């Protein structure tokens, strides 16, 4: 049975309204666990709610809307990766742990770009922009040729928190110095790992895209409200035609990005397009839209938009980071272009 989208969106907005910037990550994790979000896409046989990916997509929009640090993405992305690992004996156990509020940490950068080297059962290199490392027991490692869940307390693993310009999320670097990969850690190897990596990559790009659409929507709403209250020449700024046109343009950009987001999700659910290429294209448009909205909103707020008293700077910093999470926008556009060239040449 599908949860009604409006009910899920409203419940998400209500919960995340109390989990905005500055919320302790552990508190946010406990809240989304108690709400059942970490079991959202798991099958009923695994103790989950067996909802389609679109249900998670709505929550990613609401996390962006609240610019919340809620670490939903590592858990649901790891669950997708685990379920994509055919024959992995520990799948049900791990899905249960995720649903119970024990998700592994995961990098928010594209797995295919990870600076890792796996040879002779040893792992070296580093994962940057890892979310959830402060509370997790394991980290999802997805790199060419291997997908694994590696304990963070194993010899050779070091967790170093990033000093973040974006204050709305806590991220870290996880480095591996000759870390032994045991048989029980491995989800898949070789070509089987490519399937796991594709699942994680697709989920990650759609999640960041949803975060961008939700954030851009909230910021434009706040900007319009500000223009209604701020006066110049005894008239609200919202009455000035030039400013109306700028806001209307931003609304059009957001509506287009949201339409592409949900159309991309529909194609993903239907299996009518290559999921990785599709997700990259959606992410590129949505994150570029968020950046444009953030830049314009700061301008529309005037000088006060640059101050810490107003939240514009939080959205702006999140927008700049989102451009580089998953795959950078340039890399996304190149990948989509190459896929189109192959399709046209076929």
TrEMBL record:
<dbReference type="Pfam" id="PF00441">
    <property type="entry name" value="Acyl-CoA_dh_1"/>
</dbReference>
<dbReference type="InterPro" id="IPR036250">
    <property type="entry name" value="AcylCo_DH-like_C"/>
</dbReference>
<dbReference type="InterPro" id="IPR009100">
    <property type="entry name" value="AcylCoA_DH/oxidase_NM_dom_sf"/>
</dbReference>
<dbReference type="GO" id="GO:0003995">
    <property type="term" value="F:acyl-CoA dehydrogenase activity"/>
</dbReference>
<protein>
    <submittedName>
        <fullName>Acyl-CoA/acyl-ACP dehydrogenase</fullName>
    </submittedName>
</protein>
<keyword id="KW-0560">Oxidoreductase</keyword>
<dbReference type="GO" id="GO:0050660">
    <property type="term" value="F:flavin adenine dinucleotide binding"/>
</dbReference>
<dbReference type="InterPro" id="IPR046373">
    <property type="entry name" value="Acyl-CoA_Oxase/DH_mid-dom_sf"/>
</dbReference>
<dbReference type="InterPro" id="IPR037069">
    <property type="entry name" value="AcylCoA_DH/ox_N_sf"/>
</dbReference>
<keyword id="KW-0274">FAD</keyword>
<feature type="domain" description="Acyl-CoA dehydrogenase/oxidase C-terminal">
    <location>
        <begin position="200"/>
        <end position="326"/>
    </location>
</feature>
<dbReference type="InterPro" id="IPR009075">
    <property type="entry name" value="AcylCo_DH/oxidase_C"/>
</dbReference>
<keyword id="KW-0285">Flavoprotein</keyword>
<comment type="similarity">
    <text>Belongs to the acyl-CoA dehydrogenase family.</text>
</comment>
């Amino acid at each position: 049975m599908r949860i009604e989208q409006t009910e899920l969106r409203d419940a998400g907005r209500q919960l995340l309204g109390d989990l905005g910037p500055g919320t302790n990550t552990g508190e946010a994790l406990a809240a989304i666990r108690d709400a059942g979000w970490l079991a959202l896409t798991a099958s009923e046989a695994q103790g989950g709610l067996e909802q389609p990916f679109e249900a998670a997509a709505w929550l990613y929009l609401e996390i962006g809307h609240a610019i919340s640090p809620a670490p939903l993405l590592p858990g649901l992305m790891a669950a997708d990766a685990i379920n994509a690992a055919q024959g992995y004996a520990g799948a049900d156990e791990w899905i249960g742990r995720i649903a119970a509020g024990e998700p592994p940490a995961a990098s928010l950068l594209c797995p295919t770009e990870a600076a890792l080297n796996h040879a002779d059962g040893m792992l070296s290199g580093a994962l940057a922009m890892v979310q959830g490392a402060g509370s997790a027991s394991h980290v999802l490692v997805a790199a060419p040729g291997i997908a694994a869940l590696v304990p963070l307390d194993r010899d050779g693993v070091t967790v170093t928190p990033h000093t973040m310009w974006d204050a709305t999320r806590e991220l870290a670097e996880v480095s591996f110095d000759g870390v032994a990969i045991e048989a029980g850690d491995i989800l898949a190897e070789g070509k089987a790992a490519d399937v796991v990596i594709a699942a994680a990559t697709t989920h990650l790009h759609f999640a960041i895209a949803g975060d961008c659409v939700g954030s851009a929507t909230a910021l434009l709403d706040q900007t319009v409200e500000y223009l209604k209250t701020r006066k110049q020449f005894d008239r609200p700024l919202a009455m000035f035609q030039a400013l109306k046109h700028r806001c209307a343009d931003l609304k059009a950009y957001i509506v287009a990005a949201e339409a592409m987001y949900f159309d991309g999700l529909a194609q993903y659910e239907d299996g009518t397009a290559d999921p990785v290429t599709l997700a990259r294209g959606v992410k590129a448009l949505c994150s570029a839209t968020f950046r444009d909205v953030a830049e314009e909103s700061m301008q529309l707020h005037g000088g006060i938009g640059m101050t810490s008293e107003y939240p514009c700077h939080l959205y702006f910093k999140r927008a700049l980071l989102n451009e580089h999470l998953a795959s950078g926008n340039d890399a996304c556009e190149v990948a989509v272009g190459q896929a189109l060239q192959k399709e046209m040449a076929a």
